[in-house]
Specification:
With about 300 residues, the chain is α+β, with helices and mostly antiparallel strands. The chain folds into two domains: about 160 residues, 3-Layer(aba) Sandwich (Beta-lactamase); about 130 residues, DD-peptidase/beta-lactamase superfamily (Beta-lactamase, 3-Layer(aba) Sandwich), CATH 3.40.710. It contains 14 helices and ten strands. The strands form three sheets. Strands 3-2-9-8-7 form a five-stranded antiparallel sheet, sandwiched between helices. A three-stranded antiparallel sheet has the order 4-6-5. The structure holds 6-diazenyl-5-OXO-L-norleucine (DON).
């Protein structure tokens, strides 16, 4: 059973934030996301048993965008193991998520798997040996399994909207290909990446999906292993150091929990041994991270004593 304190805290956070006027700006460089109502806020916290504390719009599907990079990395590591680290680094970039400058200095090896350049390499790994359709089917199947929910889907309209406007990602992909760090045709890698980002999930589903990272790599419902506990620890380390792009240091300072953001306004946060948390509010700060989502996690971490740096 969920603790009463947690249920109360989650309800309080949602009530406090519902009065907040300054909510940041909705991502508008993806036209389909520009029209999302910034007034929404959802939070879901799952424990090992899948018990949930939720508040606000926790059952409304939103575009998970870059949060998908955590699941894609998990699949790519499962496919080619640690050899992926020859093609992508493990350092925070200190640059915007869609920056291209570092790629030239560092000869086509992206700093980490969560900036767009690194995520394109990860999508390339997932795609190898498959058609984009089959590769995306694997991503979805993985999410259905870890979230115990077969209804999770790809929002095709969002994918097509980004496909029509994603010139920066196209530049990054072409650049990577020029350095030999993409093996598949650029259009196929981009198509896979855009569709992976366009997965729609609710806070409830996302919190359920993140449990394997919170609980030693295991799938709490079946008890089976999703990844080794070492791998779960390392993915969490990358989320803490790189999960919020050039806002990662500030997020660690304020919240102190491994977490991955997306420009849809979602954040998946992992409290090792304790909980998997999903928050969502579409308004973003200058780094592309959810304003209310970060505030909610800061409040939750403080009140529950959940910072990984001490309670
Ligand atoms: O590639 C993009 O720009 C988007 N599909 C995803 C970026 C994103 O979510 C960055 N997160 N804060």
């Amino acid at each position: 059973m969920m603790s009463e304190k947690l249920a109360e805290t989650v309800a309080e956070i949602a009530a406090t934030l519902s009065a907040r006027a300054d909510r940041g700006r909705v991502a508008d460089y993806i036209p389909e996301l520009a029209g999302v109502d910034p007034g929404q806020f959802g939070i879901a916290v799952a424990d090992a048993g899948g018990h949930m504390a939720t508040a606000g719009d926790a059952a409304t599907p939103f575009s998970i965008q870059s949060v998908s990079k955590v699941f894609a990395l998990t699949l790519a590591l499962g496919k080619i193991g640690d050899s992926i680290w020859h093609r992508v680094g493990r350092e925070p970039s200190g640059n915007a998520f869609n920056s291209i400058t570092q790629l030239e200095y560092e000869k086509g090896i992206p700093r980490n798997p969560f900036i767009n350049a690194g995520a394109l390499v990860v999508s390339d790994v997932i795609l190898s040996g498959h058609t984009p359709k089959v590769a995306l089917g694997e991503v979805l199947r993985f999410l259905h399994f870890v979230a115990d929910d077969e209804t999770i889907f790809i929002d095709d309209k969002v994918a097509r909207s980004e496909e029509a406007t994603g010139f920066r990602n196209a530049a990054l992909a072409n650049y990577l290909r020029a350095f030999g760090n993409l093996k598949n045709p650029v259009e196929m890698v981009l198509g896979t990446y855009f569709h992976q980002c366009a997965i729609a999930m609710t806070c409830r589903q996302l919190a359920m999906a993140g449990r394997y990272l919170a609980f030693g790599g295991r799938h709490p419902t079946s008890g089976g292993g999703v990844v080794s506990s070492d791998r779960a620890k390392r993915i969490n380390a990358l989320m803490l150091t790189c999960g919020h792009y050039d806002g990662s240091g500030d997020f660690a300072f304020r919240v102190g929990i491994p977490a991955k953001s997306g420009v849809g306004g979602g954040i998946l946060a992992v409290v090792p041994g304790k909980a998997s948390i999903a928050v969502w509010s579409p308004g973003l700060d200058a780094q592309g991270n959810s304003v209310l989502g970060s505030d909610a996690l800061e409040m939750l971490s403080r009140r529950m004593g959940w910072s990984v740096f001490g309670d």
